[in-house]
Amino acid sequence: MTVAGKGGRPKKWKSDADRVRAYRARQRGEAEPATIEQAIDEGGDFADYIARIAELEQKVAAGRRIASQHVARLRKLDGEKWELQRRLERMERELESLQETHARVTQQRDQLMAVLNAWAEPDGGAPADDVADQLSRAERRRRAREELRRRPS
């Protein structure tokens, strides 16, 4: 029976030297050296080495499984990282846009306050900010209409 992951026929002999010894022994009619299965069954150092190899192969296989799981997790996290990076860039662009809009609105507000303060000065003589805070919207509109009527066309 073949071993998974290893191509070709399974080894019958411990080494090429044993294979050659077995061939020569068959030619002469002598006893052949022990095959791998026989050597394992007899025990000894060779059997210990084979058992250690099998144990290490199992550890390597388990390590490969764990490594592939970690690689899959890393790939998933990498995808999530890139998605978060794209979202961050999109939010930074949106923030810049909102900051520009805020600056425009602040500038327009300042201009409107300057116009309102200019309208409020001739009437009350009070500081412009106080007048703007004291007058209702309707009163400010009424005063603006009156100011427009008084101006010569």
From TrEMBL:
GO biological process, one term: signal transduction
Biased composition (Basic and acidic residues): 13-31, 144-153
Coiled coil: 74-115
Region feature (Disordered): 1-33, 121-153
InterPro entries, per database record: Death_dom
Domain Death: start-end pairs: 83-140
Keywords: Coiled coil
The name this protein goes by in its record: Unannotated protein
Source organism phylogeny: unclassified sequences, metagenomes, ecological metagenomes
